[in-house]
Amino acid sequence: MEHLVRIVNDTDRQVLAWLRAQVGDARVERAARQLGHTRKPFPSAVCRYLGMSAPATLRQAERPRVARDFSVGDRYLSLIRQHLASHSAGR
Fold first, then answer.
1. pLDDT in tens, 11-69
2. Residue 56 near residue 79 (C-beta atoms within 8 A)
3. Residues 41, 31, 20: CA angle, nearest 5 degrees
4. How far is CA 84 from CA 10, 44, 53, 71, 90, in A?
5. 21 CB neighbour count, 10 Å cutoff
6. What phi, psi does 38 have (nearest 5°)?
7. Which residues contact 47 (CB under 8 A, 6 or more apart)?
8. Composition of the chain by helix, strand, coil, percent to 5
9. N or C: which terminus of the chain carries fewer CB neighbours within 10 A?
C-alpha cells in the first residue's frame, strides 16, 4: 500500500496502518488512486477524503523539549531597564 501513499515518517506509517484497519485496503487504495493523479497523497489527505480523522495519539509524536538559554535576552532587557530608569530619574 505504501506504493500508493506518500510515507515520510513513522507517524505516516502508523496512520496508514490505522486507516487500513478502519476502512479496509480496497477503500484506501481507491481513495489514494483518486487523489493521486499527479503525486502520491499523504495519509492525512486520504483520511480527509474518506471522512476519517486519525486518533490524536497517532497524529503527532511527542517531541522532547529542548532547554533554551535566555541569558542574552535577559541581559539586554536588564540593560534597557537600566537605561530607562536613568532617563526617568533625570527628569
1. 999 999 999 999 999 999 999 999 988 899 999 999 999 999 988 887 665 567 788 89
2. no
3. 90
4. 52, 52, 53, 20, 10
5. 10
6. -110, -35
7. 15, 19, 53, 54
8. 60, 0, 40
9. C
Residue 86 exposed, middle or buried by CB count within 10 Å (0-12, 13-18, 19+): exposed
pTM > 0.70: yes or no: no
Quote the cell numbers at residue 38.
499527479
Place of cell 533625570: 90
Cell of 12: 505516516
- Residues, the chain, total? 91
CB 51 within 8 A of CB 31: no
